[in-house]
Design goal:
With 138 residues, the chain is of the alpha/beta class. It is built from 5 helices and 5 strands. Helix 2 links the parallel strand 4 and strand 5.
Length: 138
Amino acid sequence: MRFGFLSLHDVESTRFITLLVYQDNNRGISYEIASISRPFDSVIDVIDLVIDLQLDSLETDSQQLYRDLIVCDMPIIYRRELDETKTYIDRVYDELVEIYELNTEAEAQHLAKWRLFIIKKLERLIAWLKKETEYANI
């Protein structure tokens, strides 16, 4: 039997879907076979993922996902909390920020004002130089 834990988490103001997939052997022992975390676009992506992974059952702590998937006749159970997905997100939080480049805006806001001033002036100068070279090439 193959089952999964599905949850939505916010990583640096970006909504991520987290799916942990487990395989159960004949002796009642479960082991993790996949862990997926990616930006959440739509419930259609989640449905495709569940079908591709051939999950027999699914548990979620998201009421939104539960409503959307139960309407689609997916094998889903609602639980108040999924500690497994929270632990996984805590473990890979930094990697997700780095892979999806989520903190670039935050870093830009922390630049000193004089650096931002110089950056603006340089961008204007570059734009002006590009315009001048276009006229020179005519």
